[in-house]
Amino acid sequence: MANEAQPLIRLVAAVIERDGRYLITQRRPSAVLAGLWEFPGGRVEEGESDEQALRRELGERLGTEVVVKGRMAHRVHHYHGYSVDLNLYQAAIAEGQEPQPLRVAEVRWVPSNEFEKYPFPAADQATTDILLGFRR
Q: In this predicted structure, what is the pLDDT of residue 1?
């Protein structure tokens, strides 16, 4: 059961598709939920819009500029001691740029039918399931 007093962290993530594959990143060993995979993104800082946060986070983590399109999904997930308010946006990497693992352990392009091979954090998994029409 969720505790209303626990901190709520606003997060954004980008769904970036190229040639039938989606960009996912692996969390660094020093990160919370280390080693898990996710759509690239991060925390929304105070005073930032979701779009600004997504552009900043992908620049810092992957060295890429992105064009943020519409919001695809929203999910609030409760972890032990905190909750995340995750907004997933369709986005595209600026032409001629290739993501690099600057502040992530690894970067991969994978087809959606291989997502199950990559462990995602619970909040991301639930959002991915919504996007792909899965029911667990």
A: 47
